[in-house]
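Researcher: Predict the fold of Winged helix DNA-binding domain-containing protein.
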Amino acid sequence: MAKSAAGGRAATRELLRQRLETQWIAPPVRPAGQEGGGPGIAEVAHHLLAVQAQDFGQAVWALGLRAPGSTRTDVAAALDSAQVVRSWPMRGTLHFSTPDDLRWMLSLTAAKTVTGVAARHRQLELDDTVFARARRIAQAELRGGGSFSREEFFALLEADGISTTGQRGVHIIWWLAHDGLLCWGPTRGTQQALVLLDDWAPPTRDPHPDRDTSLAEFVLRYVTGHGPATLKDFCWWSKTTVIDAQRGLALVRDRLVETDIDGVSYWMRDPADAPPSPPRRASVVHALPGFDEYLLGYQDRSHALPAEFAARIVPGNNGMFLPMIVSRGTIVGTWRRSVTPKKATVSAEPFTSLSRADQTGFAREVARYGRFLGVPATIADADPAAGTTPTDANVATADPNVTSPPPGGAAGAPA
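Model: C-alpha cells for Winged helix DNA-binding domain-containing protein follow.
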C-alpha cells in the first residue's frame, strides 16, 4: 500500500482514535437501547491475539469491556469451555489467548524466554532432570482431561521428593507451560485449574506451522488488534528479535497500510484485507483496567499517556498498573474499586479536573462495569473534578471475588 504522511497533534488524535477502534474499545454501533450483539469473549481474545492477564480480575474486565453486554459469567464460561486459556505466550507474562494461538506463539517465543531465566533456575537448583520428573507427574495425573490446583500440584511434587519452596514450584509450572504441556484452564471456585493444554483444548489447526508462517501471522495479528503501531512496538510486545520482526513484516507488508507520523512508520491492517467488523462509535470516556493492552500493548506509550503523569499509573514504580480513565484516547486519571457480593464502589483519581461531560461519561462506564460484574456500581464520595484522592478506606485496587494469578507476583516469580 502507498505510504501516507502526517504529524502534529491532529495526527496523534487520529492515531488514538484508530487504536480505540482497532482494539475494540470504542463500542460497535447498534440500535438505541440494545447493548448486546457484539463480539463474544473468545472473539475478543482472538482479535487481540493476547491480552495481558497477570492480574486476573483486571484482565477479565479487559475482555468484557470489548464484548459489550457480556458479564463476568461469560468470561468464566469461555474459560470453562476451553475457548480461552491463560498462559505465558510472551515476555514471561501471563496472557489470555485462544488455545490454538497459544501453541504457535510458544513455538516462536518459548525457547528465548526460558533461556533468559536460566540463571534464576540454576539458583533454584532446577534443571532438566527436575523438569522431566515434574512433567511425568503432571502427565500421569492429568491425562484424560483431569485438572488440579497449584496447591494440589505442589503436593504431588513434594510427595515425589521435588521441593516447591522458595519459588521452585512457581517456576516449575512456568517452565511446563512454556514447554507447551500445561495451561491455566477452567475456573475452580475463585481460582483457575491447571490442565494439559492438548487434552483440554485439542488443536484445530497445525500446532507447529513453519517459522515464516508463524512470524507472518504474529506481525499481522498484532497489527490487526493493536494498530497503528510501529515495528518497535511489536518487538517490545512480542519480545521477538528485530530480524524476526522485519522478516514477519516483509511477509505481510502488502496486507498493511503504512503511515509516517513525525518521521516514524506506523502500520495498520489494510481495510480491504481486514476481517469484517461492525462500525464503531467514538465514545469519549472509557474505564479501562490496569495492565490494559491500550497502554501495555506498545513500547512507546507517550501518545496516550502524558509523560508527567506516567508515575501516577504505576505508583512507586512497583510494576502494578492501576485502572485508567481514558478521555478521547488520552489517559486522564486512574480509578479504584471495591467489590462485594452485593455492590461495587468506584472512586476516580483524575490527573487534572474532569469536565462535566467526562464525569458523566465516566459514570456511564462505571454503570457498565457494574452490569458486567452483576452488581450495582456507584462512584464513591469524591469530587472527580477536583483531582482529590478519596479517603474511603474500603476503596481497594483488588476485587476479592476474582483470583489473582495463581503463580502470583512474589519478587522474582514469573507474572
